[in-house]
Write a structure and sequence with these properties.
The complex is a heterodimer of chains A (285) and B (296). Chain A has 285 residues and is mainly alpha-helical. Chain A is built from 13 helices and no strands. Helices cover 79% and strands 0% of the residues of chain A. In chain A, helix 1 packs across helix 12 and helix 3 crosses helix 9. Chain B is an all-alpha fold and 296 residues long. Chain B has a single domain, classed as MetI-like fold, CATH 1.10.3720. In chain B, 72% of the residues lie in helices and 1% in strands. In chain B, strands 1-2 form a two-stranded antiparallel sheet. The chains are: A mainly alpha (285), B mainly alpha (296). Chains A and B meet through helix 1, helix 3, helix 4, helix 5 and helix 6 of A and helix 1, helix 2, helix 4, helix 5 and helix 6 of B.
């Protein structure tokens, strides 16, 4: 009796110790993950002098004017541009990919597999490979240095993954609803729009979120195809912002925090859809 | 109505928009890229002068290509260690039965957070942290008396590339961990239970159950990470633009510099073809390994 009890006790102790070790390790890792952002956040309220003296203290006075200055210095404009580019690209990609997924999952037709691999093949292509010809194409069509120079390539490179996600989901939806609609006399476009699209809402939410994050953070196309500061998105705008304010570090830090907040809030509000998208895709953006 | 539904052209209508956009903005450029690589031309004077494979022979004599590929390989090796092996171990720890769900979710979300940030937010943040005077790292080192270890992290040839690779691990380990968690959650809990009854400890469970059963995810993650390391561009461009003195040059960055700073479009197109071949081969290897894995 006694031995059994002590055995229980020791394994219990062991378990507690292991748990404590794991929690400690992850506490340290969480600190490493968050501290750079917290460091920038606290310093964004200081003067440059204070930053230089001691960067890990809390600010003595909270200089909110750093934020006002960053906002006025262009961050507001860049955020507006990012919102415009992201919403246009995500909606366009969602519509096009829904159609492609529907075509691929609900019909038997000649060339089906070729077209499936044509679309999925885009997943493996590095955007750099298309960069130089794209530059020429956009210049030829007078799209260079316009919003379209960011929207259209982003949509094209988003189609493979979004179509892949939606198609896998559609394959799992029973066809009963559609068949009922066909008996009621609906054509393929009506079936698509009124039956299939509403049924795909959950995966659509996840796919659009992942896509929004990708477009919002896209850097290379924006860098290559846009020079006008008035249409720059956050990733690019932040670079010109940081180099223009080269000596006002705390204002730059305020700008960084303003730029980081929209995506952090979006993620925290939509974790579930987010993780579902990652699970369904299993692919790194 | 039924006849209309079976109209043979219908599926093609649905596929048309994606096919057009992908052809114009992805596939046509890939083909054109190869064509342009056979010429000498610039963005200012767009006349194409045919020079055959001269741009390709130049790749073999260009030391900066070798240096770039070395840095890409370094990037790949370190990233696989952190984003595959360490991420898998961390995922297994968080999924261990003794971790309470509340803490599991909390830690998972915190570690995931860096991956949602834009590359320029990450890049400029770490530039500030790496700064020699006001930067966090040197300030901490000085505060604890390790002044000799202070560096101009991004400004010294010996440390620049490692400093950037470290940032990339900071940003992506949590992301990869979540993908492994998803794979581990798909393993039937009974397997772990019966192993525990047989007296297997946590380490044995990890190597005998977790590792073999997440093999497919591990393979996919390894290839994605390696391919990602060969096409990396933005974080390098933001943090050092390949400097100092090309010490942190990678292929994507070098290609961009040759195209849009040196204005040697033909040579840049040849470098892009090299990148295409590398990613193509890596994808091919993944598909091949994945297939043999399934046969076993």
């Amino acid at each position: 009796m006694k031995t059994a009890k002590s055995h229980l006790f020791s394994s219990d102790l062991n378990e507690k110790l292991n748990r404590a070790l794991i929690y400690f390790l992850f506490f340290v890792l969480s600190f490493v993950a968050l501290y750079p952002l917290l460091w920038v956040a606290t310093n964004s309220f200081k003067t440059d002098l204070q930053l230089f003296e001691n960067s890990w203290e809390l600010p003595q006075e909270w200089h909110w004017e750093n934020y006002a200055q960053a906002w006025k210095y262009g961050i507001a404009k860049y955020i507006l541009n990012s919102v415009l580019v992201t919403i246009s690209a995500v909606l366009l990609n969602a519509l096009i990919s829904l159609m492609a997924a529907y075509g691929l999952s609900r019909f038997q037709f000649r060339g089906q597999f070729v077209l499936l691999y044509f679309i999925l093949g885009g997943l493996m292509l590095a955007p750099e490979v298309s960069l130089i010809p794209l530059f020429r194409i956009l210049t030829t069509f007078n799209l260079y240095d316009t919003y379209f120079a960011m929207i259209l390539p982003n949509v094209a490179f988003g189609i493979p993954f979004t179509t892949f996600l939606i198609r896998s989901y559609m394959l799992g939806i029973p066809k009963d609803f559609e068949e009922a609609a066909v008996i009621d006399g609906a054509g393929p476009f009506a079936v698509f729009w009124r039956v299939v699209v509403p049924l795909c809402r959950p995966i659509l939410a996840s796919a659009m979120l992942l896509d929004a994050m990708r477009v919002w953070n896209e850097f290379m196309f924006a860098l290559t195809f846009v020079v006008d500061d008035d249409i720059k998105t956050v990733p690019l705008g932040l670079m010109s912002f940081a180099s223009a304010l080269r000596e006002q570090w705390t204002v730059v830090m305020a700008g960084l925090i303003i730029s980081a907040v929209p995506m952090i809030v979006l993620y925290l509000l939509t974790q579930r859809q987010f993780i579902r998208g990652l699970t369904a895709g299993g692919v790194k953006g | 109505m039924k006849r209309k539904f079976l109209n043979q052209l219908t599926p093609y209508y649905f596929l048309l928009p994606s096919l057009i956009l992908m052809s114009v903005f992805i596939y046509l450029p890939v083909v054109e890229n190869f064509y342009y690589s056979l010429f000498r031309w610039s963005a200012i004077d767009t006349t194409l002068n045919y020079i055959g494979f001269e741009n390709y022979t130049r790749i073999f004599t260009d030391d900066l290509v070798g240096l770039s590929l070395f840095n890409n390989t370094l990037y790949a090796v370190i990233s696989v260690i952190f984003q595959v092996f360490i991420a898998l171990v961390l995922a297994a720890m968080l999924e261990a039965h003794l971790v309470r769900p509340f803490f599991g979710t909390l830690f998972r979300n915190i570690l995931f957070l860096p991956s949602v940030l834009a590359i320029s937010v990450v890049g400029v943040t770490w530039q500030l942290i790496y700064r020699p005077d006001t930067g966090l790292i040197n300030q901490v080192l000085r505060a604890v008396g390790l002044d000799t270890l202070t560096r101009t992290w991004l400004g010294e040839e010996g440390t620049a590339i490692y400093s950037i690779i470290a940032v990339s691990q900071w940003q992506w380990v949590g992301y990869c961990m979540i993908l492994f968690i998803v794979a581990i959650q798909a393993i039937p809990e009974e397997l772990f239970e019966s192993a525990r009854i047989d007296g297997a400890n946590a380490v044995q469970q990890f190597f005998r159950i977790t590792v073999p059963l997440v093999r497919e995810t591990t393979l996919v993650m390894t290839t994605i990470t390696v391919i990602g390391a060969f096409k990396v561009f933005d974080i390098i461009w933001v943090m050092t633009a390949g400097g100092p003195n090309h010490a942190s040059e990678v292929l994507g960055n070098y290609l961009y510099r040759v195209a849009f700073r040196n204005d040697e479009m033909g040579y840049a197109a040849a470098l892009a073809t090299l990148l295409f071949v590398i990613t193509f081969l890596l994808t091919f290897i993944q598909l091949w390994l994945g297939r043999t894995g399934k046969e076993n």
